[in-house]
Amino acid sequence: MLENTRSEEVQIEDKKKARVEKKPLPILGPDPNGPHLSTTPAEQAKPVSKEFLCQGISEDIYQGIPESCPLNHFRHEFITDLSQIQATTSYGGPGSKYKDINEDSFFFGQNKNGATLAGVIDGSGGSNQGYLAGKIANQALASSLLDNKSILESFKIADENVADFGNGGYATGIAVAIESNRMAHIAGKGDAKLLTLRDKEILLEGRSQIHSAVARHIERGILPEHAIHTSSRKNIVTSVIGNIKLPVFHTSFQTQKNDLMILASDGFWDVVSEYETVELAKTTPAHRLQEELFELAYVRNNSTQAFFIQFSKAEMHQMRPLFARKRDCRGDNITVMVLNIK
Description:
Elements (H helix, E strand, L loop, with lengths): L5 H13 L8 E3 L6 E3 L11 H6 L5 E4 L8 E7 L3 E8 L13 E7 L5 E9 L4 H18 L4 H15 L4 E9 L4 E7 L3 E6 L2 E2 L10 H7 L7 H4 L18 E6 L5 E5 L1 H4 L4 H10 L2 H16 L5 E4 L5 E4 L3 E3 L2 E2 L4 E8 L1
Antiparallel strand pairs: 1-2, 3-6, 4-5, 5-18, 6-7, 7-8, 8-9, 9-12, 10-11, 10-13, 13-18, 14-15, 16-17
Helix pairs in contact: 3-4
């Protein structure tokens, strides 16, 4: 859900009518002789084979777009010069409110300059337009970063492509580009989030900020920190991919060996706290952390009984079951990625 964007959407529509017709960013697609870039608009693109999307678009970049991958769990691993990456995306199980679609996706890889690239995207906007917007955003960010564009320029391109070809849908997302000198550049819009752990503790300069009404009230001291999980307004976002006027979070910092980066959609962060993420990292080998984090979120997403989210050693809050009845499914799509810096 997007807060107060009706006027912005009208302005964008007016600009589109006055704008000289522009071609969409090349969409990554298959070729009988190997991967290539086609210029087919995203909404008219021919379905890509299961083998193509599930095995990657080239040797340098990999997209986990679930349109032709297993609906339930889809997991993949990748190794770059700087990191080992693991990611899982899922429609969320029987407790998910999305029964036949996963609007989440991810990408990771390495460009010709040796930069490690990774991102998690969450489509939104209702109907099937959220899926379309998420797919366009994924392809725009992955293509732009692979083409050595900066992370902010890549988000601008994603904004423009979703606005022009997303049929009114929008997306949220978080992405990181780690240069060969180990400098990480993080950018995001909406409520997907990146958390960096160093020596099994949160590294503040490597923690992204989310754009949501509740997060804004927490920063101002109006709401307690646990409201990000317990408030009925927690999913009202204040920035999205598809509206270039809305802000992009951006930060840079120097990574170190054994840093861990956790990128996840709101389907994960809604049911797992930062404190729990850190505590699990303290007791879980790095190569198993992604799997354990996903399983924790998945179990809670399909809970038929109340469960507790822990925020500190002394504080926890009870959460309503997300799968209380067949007609009352409130769970979400879930995507979790972990980068282990080598």
